[in-house]
Amino acid sequence: MKSKKVLALLLAAIMLSTIAACTTTPSTSPSGSPDAEGTGDQTSQDDVRLTLATGGTGGTYYPYGGAIALVVDDETGYIKINAIATGASAENIQLVGSAEAHLALVQNDTMDYAYNATNTWTSEAVTNLATLMTLYPEVCQIVVTADSDIFSVADLAGKRVSTGDIGSGVEANAIQILEAYAMTVDDIIQESLSFASSADAMKDGVIDAFFVTAGTPNTSILDLQTSRNLRILNLEDGIIDALIEKYPFYAMYTITTAEYSFLEADVNTVAVQATLIASPDLDEQVAYDIVKAIIEGKDALVEAHSKGEFIDADYAVQGVSVPFHPGARRYFTEIGVLD
Questions:
Q1: Does the residue 339 lie in any domain?
Q2: Most buried one in 252, 313, 332, 335, CB count within 10 A?
Q3: Sign of torsion, CA 212 178 168 66?
Q4: Tell me: the pLDDT tens digits for 43-78?
Q5: What is the secondary structure of 119-176 as a DSSP string?
Q6: Please, what is the average pLDDT of the chain?
Q7: Domain containing 197 — which CATH number?
Q8: Is residue 328 located within the same domain as residue 217?
Q9: What is the C-alpha separation between 313 and 291, in angstroms, rounded?
Q10: What does the alpha-carbon distance between residue 103 and residue 140 come to, in Å, rounded to a whole number?
Q11: pTM for this one?
Q12: How many CB atoms sit inside 10 A of residue 226's CB?
């Protein structure tokens, strides 16, 4: 393992090269093998070069993708990943599905919708996708003020509730959670606001509750708690079980008092997963080595990005509704977290 100084220098170099390459397309086929001309695919006889679609430069996916590239290179010594900026999940799914990227970071519920052509996915199904591993949770959070008479999702009936932007993943999550309580958006006074706008609306007393699907702690919630006393609604165990059974991309998540200082007790909810996906045509050994590198290189990944803290072999196979890549499945089977 390289020193922290070398890791930092390599990460900086990767991020600089990524900015320059944001509009490029991959130079290799999804298998990672040389093209017909044998040019541009390998940095040496044994190196494999891959493109990883991430997200916008101001979000989490982009720097985290750079961190993954660094750790995989460091751990394997032969897999060279170029992380490129994109429009995130929906675009990334199309890029991998059309063989314009070998790897991508996506939200697993959006991946499920695309794979099955359901819910918010209005285009044709994209089935040329495979799961490598889940990386970290994007948590479903339902925020109310501490003096509110809303203690359960059932209490949202007749209340003014923001369910996120129209057509967003947040809205889809809100609809599914309401459904678990035998409710629909017709049972609430629905507002369709961004996280920041939802926080402002609650601060001004315009709404009674709002949904957030994001990593914790969320900036908009943190900003709001400086001017309002808040609570986050707990989902009952039976509701969580029902959601996971019907929508396998969900996993249980506990929001702790360490994540939000205003909480008086931990809160149980569900989360979707930021997920690393690949083309099914990616070489099996390459896929195996990528997953192995991320799991075994966790310490280095944490040094490069805080979300690395969530890397865990058991967690990496939760919330998976699109089949694993054979290489990933082989690795997780060998270490005993998959049958």
A1: no
A2: 332
A3: positive
A4: 444 899 999 999 888 778 899 999 999 999 999 999
A5: TT--S------EEEEEEEEEEEEEEEETT-S--SGGGGTTSEEE--STTSHHHHHHHH
A6: 88
A7: 3.40.190.10
A8: no
A9: 10
A10: 26
A11: 0.76
A12: 8
